[in-house]
Amino acid sequence: MKTSFRALAAVVLLAGFPVLVLALVAGIVVVEVFAFRNRLSHGLEFAVFAAPATYVLLRALFTFDRTGDAPGLPVTVEAQPELWALVRELAEAVGTAPPDEIRIMNRANAAVFERTRWFGLRVTGRTLFIGAPLFAGLRVAELRAVLGHEFAHYSNRDTRFAGATYRGRVAILRVLSGLDGAMPDVTLFGLPPDADVTRADFIPDREIDEARQALVTGGWQPAAQLLSEIGTDWDRRVTLVRHLGEVVANDEIGLDHWQSERPGDADAAAVNAESLVQLAWQVRSGLGAEHVSREQFQKFFAILESAVPAASEAAVLAPEDPTPWVTMLAVARGRQYDNDAFREVWEQLVARDPVNLPAHSSALQYWCEKWFGSHELMWAFAEEGAAKHPKLAVLPLAAAHEAEYRGVEDAWRHPLVAPAVDRLLPWLEGEGRDAPGTATSRAYAARALVELGRGEEAVEQFRHLGVHADANMWAYGKKGPIVEFRKIRYLACHLAEKAKSTVD
Q1: N or C: which end of the chain has fewer CB within 10 A?
Q2: What is the C-alpha separation between 416 and 56, in angstroms, rounded?
Q3: Which has the closest alpha carbon to 94: 14, 152, 142, 172?
Q4: pLDDT at position 66, please?
Q5: Model confidence at 68: pLDDT above 50
Q6: Where do the DSSP E strands lie in 2-148?
Q7: CB–CB of 393/417 below 8 Å?
Q8: Helix or strand or coil: residue 74?
Q9: 447/225 Cα distance (integer angstroms)
Q10: For helices 140-155 and 81-94, what crossing angle results, to 10°?
């Protein structure tokens, strides 16, 4: 009775698994409906995961395998009358009905099984499994003891629920294995595995990285030499000055030696001004204003105020260089310049480089609703910039990303997005392949392509990105940049897989 109770308990517990699966499916449906009602783009995004997961769960739960044969070779009464006589004798001695079938296995073991209906209330057949090694290794008395032990399971009704528990176990394994394959394997698309994705800063320009590392240890000469060689490649110059400014914000010793050896050097002045902006934002942090203390704000504004004369000095020393004015754009945003005052700084910048990518990216932030603009001003600025040069076609994509972050419905469906993607991609694969800012542009392009349903093209952008989830746009995700990067990458692979199966 105790054993039968344990068997019944096993069935009850296994019966709970289908209930759990159905509850999970119901939960997915509820979340999906809520996502669609709250925001169409979120509903579509969640559907990519919800649809295959729901299919796998239901298919695994309601799939019944009735084609599998029992293991071993059947032994008929005509072939082995003595064995059957022994089995029937032992069954009678134990007080149970004999098996309907005997099967010989290749394992050194013995077992009994019952086929039942109506949740174990009706027995439709019994099978005895005997391992062939037992015939060779046991004496008759020992074999009788083993078989008698197995028939005791029949007497105690241990096997009454064997069919139900077996089917439950198979269902559990089928669901788990199905869920494991519900998400696309990104490595099949030529992408690095999830575990390799990192948020660590990556500088694809080897010379810039080497100059930065040298300055970390106090060596300023490589930075000075590279700035001299860069000349009027303004995007690259701004990129280098930003990396050097970040180093100086943490340790001034390299810049101190630089300015001591070359007083009045325009390049050193540009790095100094940028370092003050970097330091100010370190003090403030990247958190929302509600999470920044009054003391932090006071130090932030004080440092930014000192950056104004520093940037002005750099601009005087190099009148044609837009770099100090790119720094001033960040100062203007931090010091909360009104629109007219910001435009005055902007005019100075574009007079020196009308298509500077870092400057346009910085200005777009100013014109966002979260800073000192609006959605209309942001989109207008993005449209104007995108028309200037293919590399600036990333601006509408950045605008869509910002708008979505602010809760705008279908931001990626804005009429500027698709044409901007088509203008940007050829530049990324051609002239801009190794240009500064290309990695960030690829990140925006990957996201836009996923939103537009162009999975194969999105996967190609992720191939270029490799393991690097360091673009600032990934940090907008609530669960961090790595999770956001992986999520969009999954979506890209899913869309690419779907497109391929449609063609096939």
Answers
A1: C
A2: 38
A3: 152
A4: 46
A5: no
A6: 73-75, 101-105, 110-117, 122-131
A7: no
A8: strand
A9: 37
A10: 50
Cβ–Cβ under 8 Å, residues 46 and 30: no
SS3 for 194? helix
Tell me the pLDDT band of 478, cut-offs 50, 70 and 90. Answer: confident
The Cα–Cα gap between 190 and 268 comes to: 43
Residue that is written with structure tokens 């669609």 in the block: 36
Q: Is the pLDDT of residue 116 over 70?
A: no
* Phi-psi domain of 196 (left: phi exceeds 0; alpha: psi -120 through 50; beta: other): alpha
- Which two structure tokens, joined as six digits, stand for 169? 């176990």
Cβ atoms of 105 and 131 within 8 Å: the answer is yes
The Cα–Cα gap between 330 and 428 comes to: 26
Does pLDDT of 118 surpass 60?
Answer: no
41-69 average pLDDT score: 56
DSSP for 269-301, written as a single string: HHHHHHHHHHHHHHHH-SS-GGGS-HHHHHHHH
268 and 321 Cβ atoms separated by less than 8 Å:
no
DSSP string, 28-63: HHHHHHHHHHH-HHHHHHHHHHHHHHHHHHHHHHH-
Nearest to 273 by CA among 302, 295, 242, 296: 242
Instruction: Answer whether 288's CB lies under 8 Å from 281's CB.
Output: no
**CA angle at 412 for the pair 409 and 413, rounded to the nearest 5°:** 80
| Distance from C-alpha of 226 to C-alpha of 237, rounded to nearest angstrom | 9
Question: 111 vs 60, which has greater pLDDT?
Answer: 111
Q: Is the dihedral of CA 117, 123, 125, 131 positive or negative?
A: positive
